[in-house]
């Protein structure tokens, strides 16, 4: 139990079969620990929860993330081992109303999974495009918005997500404009005009603070352009 508790303490009460094996906990012991009345509950293939530990939020998502690199402890992982993204990331923030019916992650290279409810996106991701959120690496709302649009999600749903993110300052109008810029031409706007696309989305929701947010976004874009010259 001391070894199990140490493993699970920084992983929301969860531990993988590979991690236990590396600590010398063999199959026979694992069978005993997971038997009825044992100290471990199976929550996903190769992932277990210590009985009595608080049930973490988004437990199934956390278990799926642990499966991506089952040997590596959560506290040693980087974006190379997977970042929560797309609808799953929106659900972590509580943004918009798109159902997170699959667990979605972004990785820099291909990764095989047998789970039909896990979707892997192989995409480049800059360090500024994700943060640590309640112990998980999660893409920022500005990146979520652009990812969903590239995935042809409903523009109205993305518009709601954008306003939901800006109001509590989970992200900022300027970074939203930056992230939307590569998509402007797809919506019939001038190529690279992230400000115009942000305006379009804010008009769609009719938010009372749209003009103030656009002022902040415009100031950000002008500062960035000036710094680049």
SSE inventory with pairings:
Blueprint: H1 2-9, E1 14-16, H2 17-22, H3 27-34, E2 40-44, E3 47-50, H4 59-68, E4 83-84, H5 86-93, E5 103-107, E6 118-122, E7 130-133, E8 136-139, H6 141-150, H7 155-166, H8 173-180, H9 194-205, H10 210-228
Parallel strand pairs: 5-6
Antiparallel strand pairs: 1-3, 2-3, 4-5, 7-8
Helix pairs in contact: 5-6, 6-7, 6-8, 7-9, 8-9, 8-10, 9-10
Name a few traits of the molecule:
229 residues, alpha+beta, three-stranded mixed sheet, 10 helices, elongated
Radius of gyration: 21 Å
Annotation field: number of helices: 10
Work out the count of structural domains.
2
Strand order of the largest sheet: 1-3-2
Helix content: 40-55%
Kindly name the structural category.
Answer: alpha+beta
User: What order do the helices and strands follow?
Assistant: HEHHEEHEHEEEEHHHHH
Average per-residue pLDDT, rounded, comes to 95
Give me the count of strands: 8
Please state roughly what percent of the residues sit in beta strands, choosing from under 5%, 5-15%, 15-25%, 25-35%, 35-45% or over 45%: 5-15%
> Which term fits the overall shape?
elongated
| Low-confidence spans | none
- Biggest sheet statistics: 3 strands, antiparallel
Spatial separation of the terminal alpha carbons:
60 Å
């Amino acid at each position: 139990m001391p070894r199990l508790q140490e493993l699970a303490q920084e992983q929301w009460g969860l531990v993988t079969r590979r991690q236990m094996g590396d600590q010398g906990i063999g199959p026979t012991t694992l069978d005993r620990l997971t038997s009825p009345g044992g100290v471990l509950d199976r929550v996903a293939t190769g992932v277990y929860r210590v009985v009595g530990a608080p049930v973490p939020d988004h437990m199934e998502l956390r278990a799926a993330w642990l499966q991506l690199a089952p040997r590596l402890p959560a506290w040693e992982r980087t974006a190379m081992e997977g970042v929560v993204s797309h609808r799953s990331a929106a659900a972590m923030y509580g943004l918009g109303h798109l159902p997170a019916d699959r667990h979605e992650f972004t990785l820099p290279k291909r990764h095989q999974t047998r789970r039909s409810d896990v979707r892997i996106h192989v995409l480049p991701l800059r360090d500024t495009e994700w943060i640590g959120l309640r112990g998980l690496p999660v893409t920022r709302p500005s990146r979520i918005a652009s990812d969903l649009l590239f995935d042809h999600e409903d523009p109205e749903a993305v518009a709601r997500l954008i306003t939901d993110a800006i109001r509590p300052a989970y992200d900022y109008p300027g970074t939203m404009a930056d992230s939307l810029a590569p998509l402007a031409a797809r919506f019939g706007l001038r190529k690279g005009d992230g400000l115009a696309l942000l305006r379009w989305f804010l008009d769609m929701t009719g938010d009372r603070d749209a003009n103030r947010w656009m002022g902040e976004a415009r100031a950000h874009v002008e500062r960035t352009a000036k710094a680049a010259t």
